[in-house]
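FAQ: What does a ligand-bound record look like?

Like this one, built around adenosine-5'-triphosphate:
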Amino acid sequence: MQETGSISIHTENIFPIIKKFLYSDHEIFLRELVSNAVDATQKLKSLAQLGEFKGDLGELKVRVTVDKEARKITISDRGLGMTGEEIKKYINQIAFSGATEFVEKYKDKDAAAKDQIIGQFGLGFYSAFMVAEQVEIWSQSYREGTTAAHWTCDGSTEFTLEDAEKAERGTDVVLHVAADSDEFLEEARLRTILTKYCKFLPIEIEFEGQVINQTQPIWTKQPAELTDEDYTKFYQELYPFSEPPLFWIHLNVDYPFNLTGILYFPKVKDEMQFQRNKIQLYSRQVFITDEVKDVVPEFLMLLHGVIDSPDIPLNVSRSFLQADSSVKKINTYITKKVADKLNELFKKDRAGYEEKWSDIGLFVKYGMLSDEKFYDKAKDFVLLQNAAGKYFTLTEYQEHVQVNQKDKNDQTVILYSTDPEAQHSFVVAATDRGYDVLKLDAVLDPHFIGQLEQKLEKTTFKRVDADTVGKLIEKDETTESVLSDDDKTRLQELFTKSINNEHMHVQVDALSPQDAPVVITLPEFMRRMKDMQRVGGGGGMAMFGSMPDSYTVSVNANHPVAQRVLNAEDEAGQKLARQAFDLALLAQNMLKGEALTAFVKRSADLLAAE
Ligand SMILES: Nc1ncnc2c1ncn2[C@@H]1O[C@H](COP(=O)(O)OP(=O)(O)OP(=O)(O)O)[C@@H](O)[C@H]1O
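The answer part, i.e. the structure of the complex:
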């Protein structure tokens, strides 16, 4: 029997259209054809289990071969095969109807809409024509008494179908590679594509004599069957050369959607170097993409690993994906699983959890900021670390500071440092007073502080150098000044003149004689606006970013230096004032350039004069 026919579609020349516009994704032809071969093999295995196929299954490998000379790529399976009638039905009608629909939708659209449409179609078998000028199918059905069939199509809508000789059950798809697709005749290129998409397919895939896949990747197994080593080994396979993960979560759910996978918490060295797109998305073990946006909550994009779900609609556009209800459920499920796992780690092994905190703190805070539900869970296991290195939960910390750090309005004032080294003298001044100082030095911390202030009752945060130590937490008691009002005014004028800088506002304060003679502070409000702007607050914050800092210079009326400045001759007094001011700048890490040089010289002169 030989038959020629016309594929029943209304649109001529659909091949060139598809070829042209699916350009960027040409390599997926191999994924589609190998998946079809795997599906056909699995269908046969199911038939055998059901007793509908009684013959010998034999070896079920899928073989991919390339013949560069003959310009051929062949994908062979020993699956259930197709009769001539089935080829007409499944290839001519079903496979081609997808393509027709594609072109119908596609042809009158503008460029942007076209981009969207491309993403909606998994063209399956049809994608072979992206790289081939002619495609042949040789197939022998598993059904007894059937004849093998040979189908060819040269990329027009015409096909031929004839009886054929084929000894083995199964299907060979032969691609005659087109002149503009030479790259796919390279063994190395094909190997790369196969490794990318087919590495975990459930049926062995042999390429040029070598099996390229693991048919039972660990996410398909039960957690009880697996050891820690299995998990870390798999991680190394996915991400060679990376440091071992901190821990992992094995996802396994059947209802109301189907999802398996393993999510790893990587070691994050530098929070500005987030490695995104590391989670790989699979559908029944076929690699789809590592763009998991929308499937995984934004704050968990930093995780690594694998998610496998036949329920994720893969061939739909992004906006559809966002609205898809199973995607939403998956999102919620993953968030909950991650929170549960963190809670478990925290409860089971607090010391181990604290050790990992510098790596996981980022996820937790990011999650709390971006997801209310996550906040509610994480508020019990988020940790705060103080400048001395000790960790507290939110509740523990509130208890820790509630006696000493209540101000006169019954507000708890939490003090923090963004850099305990640079702000050392302020941290020491505060701790000497019996206050505790938190270390909040992460990029996200300004936002995190804002969130805690909203959530925790009667609590405000102040950076430890936002004010002189006596005023950081306002109490009822006041320190008396030893200076008269006149002296205070003179002192203020003297310092203003000596500093001679409009952004430095001098005031005379009655601090303790043990405090520094001069302290420079930046009001909390001002600093926050600038911090927010720096981490991308944008909008209304922008104006603060461009504003020069406006510092407060507190001159300590009760320090012996104040007396000395007042008692000195005008010029000597100014020199002393400048020296005291420079010391304050030094304590704030603000003494630079010419001022620093002048300070060093003046100090040397003063030493010599003693
Ligand atoms: N190697 C094969 N062996 C047996 N049947 C096959 C083979 N390849 C394709 N088919 C048949 O042709 C049909 C159409 O294939 P095609 O790849 O276009 O679509 P699909 O696999 O159904 O869906 P998708 O668009 O997701 O790939 C398949 O459903 C299957 O019945």
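Follow-up question: can I read anything off the structure? Yes, for example: The pocket of adenosine-5'-triphosphate is lined by residues 32, 36-37, 40, 77, 79-80, 82, 90-91, 94-95, 98, 122, 124-126, 171 (CB under 6 Å).
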